[in-house]
Write a structure and sequence with these properties.
Blueprint: H1 2-36, H2 43-65, H3 73-77, H4 81-115, H5 129-155, H6 161-164
Helix pairs in contact: 1-2, 1-5, 2-5, 4-5
């Protein structure tokens, strides 16, 4: 199961990279249009869609890779493994609940946009459910990643990279 989830997280990260490249292309087209006197309708809206998709799709992979920012000042002040473990469990339960709600409402928003044929008000006139798919998939996968981390912590398995480190974040 862990291999399947890791493959899904890597797939989301790959798609996030694809959307980052698409964002670069959209911005370069806007710049080229300004320099050479042409206008491609909707490139600014598409740049926003690509950026949102890249951000949300990267969330589960960065969590599992240990690249999310964590506040460890409180953890470092706690004495004993039991206190740290209870705080970790509390934080993971809270994260599962919050991401669960966010995932539910992201999927729901995407579905409603599809049902009501909600169209972008920008020049591109894109059906909004299409760019909202990236946010919905990213939040659902982040929820899955937090559930996996919570289950690992409860079962005493080797925790994910996020939970192993006492450093606030990597800054390479």
């Amino acid at each position: 199961m862990r291999r399947l989830l890791d493959a899904l997280y890597r797939g989301c990260a790959f798609l996030a990279g694809v959307f980052m490249v698409a964002l670069l292309v959209a911005i370069c087209l806007q710049i080229a249009g300004g320099l050479f006197g042409f206008y491609l309708r909707g490139t600014d809206a598409f740049a926003g869609y690509f950026m949102a998709a890249a951000i949300f799709l990267a969330l589960p992979y960065t969590l599992k890779a240990g690249d999310h920012i964590r506040v460890t000042l409180v953890l470092q002040q706690l004495e004993g493994k039991a206190a740290r473990r209870w705080l970790e469990l509390f934080c993971l339960v809270l994260a599962v609940l919050l991401t669960g709600f966010f995932a539910w409402y992201s999927v729901r928003q995407c579905w409603w946009s599809y049902q009501f044929n909600d169209i972008s008000q920008a020049d591109d006139r894109t059906p909004l459910w299409i760019p909202q798919i990236g946010m919905a998939v990213g939040t659902v996968m982040l929820f899955v990643a937090f559930v996996e981390a919570l289950v690992d912590e409860l079962l005493g398995r080797t925790p994910s990279a996020t939970l192993q480190s006492d450093e606030p974040a990597r800054v390479e």
